[in-house]
Automatic annotation (TrEMBL):
Entry superkingdom: Bacteria
Segments crossing the lipid bilayer: 7-26, 46-68, 73-91, 103-120
Keyword NADP on entry: no
Keyword tags: Membrane, Transmembrane, Transmembrane helix
Keyword NAD assigned: no
Protein name: Epimerase
Native source species: Pseudoxanthomonas broegbernensis
Length: 121
């Protein structure tokens, strides 16, 4: 894989993380809150804290991948994504069946991160 291909792959993954952070906060009192309410998390303060913490983690990982790309950062991103996927799977397993793939998209993202991990220093 060429250096340009690796950079394009990295920027694509960075975009996903940063966009997820922005959309999570943009939809704080909309889809984000509804998702947690469907999972039984109805305390507004708890749900808000979870959304803000998740968006913050996504933002920090996205910035870290953009500014300090390294094996450690990619591995952290992969582990965070796997943890969030497991939590989401427990809270709302139907997300695996959603036609737009809110959880199934994580499979190719995991593959992209694995490629970045293997090629990073």
């Amino acid at each position: 894989m060429s250096t340009g291909d690796v950079k394009l792959l990295r920027m694509g993954v960075v975009f996903v993380w940063l966009a997820t952070a922005v959309v999570s906060l943009w939809e704080l009192n909309g889809q984000s809150m509804e998702l947690l309410a469907r999972a039984g998390i109805t305390d507004h303060r708890v749900a808000t804290a979870l959304i803000v913490l998740g968006a913050g983690a996504d933002f920090l990982i996205g910035i870290a991948m953009a500014v300090w790309p390294s094996r450690r950062v990619y591995l952290t991103a992969l582990l965070l994504m796997l943890a969030m996927t497991m939590v989401a799977s427990v809270l709302d397993p139907s997300l695996w069946l959603h036609p737009l793939g809110p959880l199934t998209k994580n499979v190719p993202i995991a593959a992209a991160l694995w490629i970045l991990i293997r090629g990073a220093k």
